[in-house]
Structures are given as structure tokens and as C-alpha cells.
Design brief:
Elements lengths: L5 E4 L5 H16 L4 H10 L3 E9 L2 E15 L2 E13 L8 H15 L4 E5 L12 H4 L2 E2 L7 E5 L10 E4 L7
Parallel strand pairs: 4-5, 6-8
Antiparallel strand pairs: 1-2, 2-3, 3-4, 3-8, 5-7
């Protein structure tokens, strides 16, 4: 576990290091990475609401993005975010950095009044942070199954009969 870690907002000066981290993390995990390009498209479209980096001794070792997401539930608009991606340099993975980035991002999202966060991710990793497929189940979206999950940042937000999740065009869905 890393103890001397600073979580801070991303700056434009961080972008080259962030692209490198995203690419290395997803290439190591999946053999390829389109995630860095996704972040660039979301950034260019002005949809990023929260972007944080994890820094240790002046070096960035992790990154997370929460971007604007169009969500309705029972006919009302939810102030929702998409979490994607969370990336940690391969040498630092399994050290707690990803979890600290997720928790810090949730804290900022709550402070800013967001209602919920949706993601497509590993079904055994994200539930430890409160995400569930059951929370996302009432929402029609391009994704489904146990990899599509949601987290209510405000109690009752996801207690709907039906809803929709529409990812903005930069997602390419």
C-alpha cells in the first residue's frame, strides 16, 4: 500500500504523462488501449467534470476521469457521471492507488452535487466502492449485464422503475 500519495486535480501539464499511464495500464491489462484516445475525445468535447491524478514524489502514477452523462430516471433528469477510465501505472497496480482515486473522485462528485455514477467495469472490483449491476439494471443503455454498474451518490437516486443512459458522441457508441 502506498502511503505518501497526493491526489490532486489534473492540469494540462499532466496530459502527456496521463496519456502514457492510460496506455500502459490498458495495454498491460488487455493487450491494447483505446482508452487514452477516449479521454482525449471526451476532453476535447468539454465533457470532463472531474479528472484527478495520483502523484508520488513528483511522478504521476494514476489517473481517473468522471465525465458528463445524459441520464433520466422515471422521466426526470439525473445529474450523472460516467467513470472511465481509472488507470494506474502497471508497476504500481494493486497498491491501493486506484481505490484512492475512486474514493477521492466520489468525494468531489458529492461536493459538486452529482446524483449518480455509471461505469462499465470489472464485476468483482467496483462493488467494493458501492457500485452494483442491480443499481444500473432499470436503465436502458448501450451496455448491460454484470459489467454495467451504477452508484447512487444521493440516497434513492437509482430507485426508479425505468430510465435511460445516453453516452455522448465522443464515446463512439
Amino acid at each position: 500500500m502506498i502511503t505518501s500519495l497526493t491526489i490532486r486535480p489534473e492540469t494540462s501539464a499532466d496530459w502527456p504523462a496521463v496519456a502514457e499511464i492510460i496506455t500502459s495500464a490498458f495495454t498491460a491489462a488487455f493487450g491494447e488501449s483505446a482508452e487514452a484516445e477516449l479521454v482525449q475525445r471526451i476532453r476535447k468535447a468539454g465533457l470532463i467534470e472531474i479528472a484527478l491524478v495520483a502523484e508520488q514524489d513528483g511522478a504521476i502514477g494514476g489517473h481517473i476521469v468522471f465525465s458528463r452523462l445524459d441520464v433520466t430516471g422515471d422521466g426526470r433528469t439525473l445529474n450523472a457521471l460516467a467513470l472511465a477510465p481509472v488507470s494506474v501505472t502497471p508497476a504500481l497496480q494493486r497498491s491501493g492507488i486506484g481505490g484512492r482515486l475512486i474514493e477521492a473522485g466520489h468525494a468531489v462528485a458529492r461536493e459538486r452535487g452529482f446524483d449518480a455514477v455509471f461505469l462499465l467495469g470489472h464485476p468483482t472490483y467496483y462493488p467494493r466502492f458501492g457500485y452494483s449491476a442491480a443499481g444500473a439494471a432499470p436503465f436502458r443503455a448501450p451496455f448491460g449485464g454484470d459489467h454495467f454498474m451504477a452508484l447512487a451518490l444521493k440516497p434513492g437516486t437509482l430507485d426508479v422503475a425505468s430510465g435511460t443512459v445516453a453516452y455522448p458522441p465522443p464515446w463512439g457508441l
